[in-house]
Structures are given as structure tokens and as C-alpha cells.
From TrEMBL:
Residues 136-251 form the VOC domain. This is Oxidoreductase. InterPro entries: Glyas_Bleomycin-R_OHBP_Dase, VOC_core. It comes from the Bacteria. It comes from Brevibacterium rongguiense.
Length: 304
């Protein structure tokens, strides 16, 4: 079955200081602010209306992930799939302007996804500002207590294709209709949340400016640069002021064959299989392996 998702749509997070997190996204990553209010900031790196929305919250936490559907019919199919899989449907109304149709559901571990028709492309393609200017918010890696069940749910609901996994489902990567090695991925953890969000850049040359942008604030990279085995992409990671782990990538593998077999490899103890995690050899540090940002409470949970 062809995936019902075309690509990543957007991400909403809570931050204790949303404006500080937004400044990091501007000064280091190179996206630009498109809307700013006292309690929220919206950013985009391309013509999409918004890619990252940072809200004022009592904790630094993941709120919702938008996934762009291949069509309005695909949105309706996701709704039907969620009902068949026993996943909780939270809304059938779009949450953001510029979206015509949407369905929002929660996984069994509480991750909230809005599957939506394409967001309006009403922003200028080019803009002034610091940073290397990414192409797009590229993918999100989530944390789950039971990553195998999580991956099964995302396949059942959205038709995502499993590109690769480790033997014990310590890591699993799922792709959308655009064929990029992963649009969402999952890491085994002690509790559900988000592991990292990722921005795509045109070239490895951009990574020098990204790393140099950390120097004025006396900050350092968390891991990288390197080249992942899973996805074959170049990478580097840093933590922003809200302690969200940010990945910057280039050269992500594209899998054109929707029937391509799932690749399975051993993760190694503490992700020590360098062929999977970093073909250049440097293994992830403890702060990367153990990183976790929690889920924000759903509105009905807060009300309760």
C-alpha cells in the first residue's frame, strides 16, 4: 500500500521560554520567525505557512506533530484506519489556518499526530537573517516504551513504510510517499516523548556555520558531524535552550521502491554498532542516547 503521508508537515512544542528557543532556531538553524505573539512563536524555513510552532508552557515538551497527507481522501482514510486500529481520534477539524482537512489522533503511548492536507505556501521563498537557511523541517524521532507497537500503529494508521529497524526494535525508521529514508522514527526509552527534531540543509558545507554559531554562547555540539548508517545522511546535533535535541542533516537517502525489503541490523550494546549509527566511527555520547523530552498533557487531561 502506498503511504497516505507525503512528508512531515509541522511540529508544535511547548517551551518555558519560547522566545529563547525561537532565537536559537533563527541564529543557529537559520529559519525565520513568521509570527510572534507573547505566548507563541511560529517559524518557517521555506514557503510553508509554519513549520515549527513554539508555545509558552510550564515545561519543555512535545505537543503535536503534523503529517502532510497525499490528498484529502488520504485524510479520510487515516481516520478510518485509526478507528479500525482502535486509536483515539481527538479531532476532525484543522488546528491551523491554511489547512482544509485534517484528522488528529493519539497513539497508545500518547503521541498526538494531525494528518492534514497541504498547508498554504504563503511565505516568501527567500529571506534575510543569520544561519545557513535550511530547506525544511525534515523528520522527527520520537521515544516510546514499546517502539515495536508504536511503529505498528503508525503503519496501520498512516500507511507509513518501515525502511529499517534494529533486531530488538531499539530503533525503527519509517518513510512516507516522498521516499526519504524516514519521516518519523522511534527510539526505545523509559517514557514516551520526542528524541530529536531535524532540519535539512543543502550541503555539508553548511555544518561549519551551524557549529560556529554555538561559539558566542559558549555552547558545544552534542554529537557529530558524522554520517549515519541508517539513512546514509550527514548529521550533527546540538541541544537548544529548551533542551530539545536538534539534528541538522544533508544527503538523506531516498528509497524509490515502495516494496523494498526492510533492513534489519543489530544495534549493539548501547548503540555500539558503528555501521548503523555512524559510518565515520564516533559512537553517540550518553547525553544523545539518553536524551528525552516529554509529551505535553492533552487539553482534556489538563482540564481533568
Amino acid at each position: 500500500m502506498r503511504p497516505l503521508i507525503q512528508r512531515l508537515g509541522y511540529l508544535v512544542v511547548d517551551a518555558i521560554d519560547p522566545h529563547a528557543a525561537a532565537r536559537d532556531t533563527v541564529n543557529i538553524v537559520g529559519a525565520r520567525i513568521v509570527e510572534e505573539c507573547p505566548d507563541s512563536v511560529a517559524l518557517s524555513s521555506n514557503q510553508r505557512h509554519a513549520e515549527l510552532i513554539i508555545r509558552k508552557g510550564t515545561a519543555n515538551a512535545l505537543v503535536r506533530c503534523g503529517l502532510e497527507a497525499t490528498s484529502a481522501a488520504a485524510v479520510e482514510q487515516v481516520r478510518a484506519n485509526c478507528e479500525a486500529a482502535g486509536l483515539r481520534i481527538l479531532s476532525t477539524e484543522p488546528s491551523l489556518p491554511g489547512i482544509e482537512a485534517a484528522v488528529t489522533f493519539a497513539t497508545s503511548e500518547g503521541h498526538v499526530f494531525e494528518v492534514h492536507t497541504p498547508m498554504s505556501a504563503d511565505r516568501p521563498a527567500r529571506y534575510h537573517g543569520p544561519g545557513a537557511h535550511p530547506r525544511a523541517l525534515d523528520h522527527v524521532n520520537f521515544t516510546a516504551v514499546d517502539p515495536r507497537a508504536w511503529a505498528d500503529e503508525m503503519q496501520a494508521a498512516c500507511g507509513l513504510l518501515l525502511s529499517e529497524r534494529t533486531t530488538g526494535y531499539e530503533l525503527a525508521w519509517l518513510r512516507a510517499a516522498d521516499g526519504r529514508h524516514h519521516t518519523v522514527a522511534v527510539v526505545k526509552s523509559h517514557s514516551p516523548g520526542i528524541h530529536h527534531m531535524s532540519w535539512e540543509f543543502p550541503s555539508f558545507d553548511d555544518f561549519k556555520n551551524l557549529a560556529d554559531a554555538l561559539i558566542p554562547d559558549a555552547r558545544k555540539l552534542t554529537w557529530g558531524p558524522g554520517r549515519h548508517g541508517a539513512g546514509d545522511n550527514l548529521f550533527l546535533y546540538f541541544a537548544d535552550s529548551a533542551d530539545f535535541l536538534i539534528e541538522c542533516v544533508a544527503e538523506m537517502e531516498v528509497i524509490d521502491d515502495e516494496a523494498a525489503p526492510v533492513r534489519i541490523s543489530a544495534a549493539g550494546e548501547n548503540l555500539s554498532n558503528w555501521r548503523v549509527v555512524n559510518q565515520w566511527g564516533a559512537l553517540p555520547p550518553t547525553e544523545w542516547v539518553e536524551h528525552h523530552s516529554p509529551l505535553a498533557a492533552l487539553a482534556e487531561d489538563r482540564a481533568a
